[in-house]
Design brief:
4-stranded antiparallel beta sheet; globular; 7-stranded mixed beta sheet; mainly beta
Length: about 120
């Protein structure tokens, strides 16, 4: 059974940093593309960053500020978020997608609030 558990969210002032973690279990980590999505109130869920096989993707709005990485030995994916802005405020979700299939799994989400 697949489990994705996010942690590391919280409240921070503009310009601050947070590091999100997502612990994964129940599947072979290396076979899945791992992503972070976010959803702000009233907005659709959007993909923020992805990583698979050493390749990464970033949404234009976070390029140069966010970094996605993995610890394959611990089946964990991270999202380092620097220079946070109020518009980054959202619930952040971890996603695992089996490459070449429609198997898609979500974590429960973690709240990130950027406010002075």
């Amino acid at each position: 059974q697949v489990h994705l558990v996010e942690s590391g969210g919280g409240s921070v002032q503009p310009g601050g940093s947070l590091r999100l973690s997502c612990g994964a279990s129940g599947f072979r980590f290396s076979d899945y593309a791992m992503s972070w999505y976010r959803q702000a109130p009233g907005n659709e869920r959007e993909r923020v960053a992805s990583i698979y096989g050493g390749s990464t993707y970033y949404a234009d709005s976070v390029k140069g500020r966010f970094t996605i990485s993995t610890d394959n030995a611990k089946n964990t994916v991270f999202l380092q978020m620097n220079s946070l802005k109020p518009e980054d405020t959202a619930i952040f979700y971890c996603n695992a997608r089996a490459v070449g299939t429609n198997n898609n799994y979500w974590g429960q989400g973690t709240q990130v609030t950027v406010s002075s």
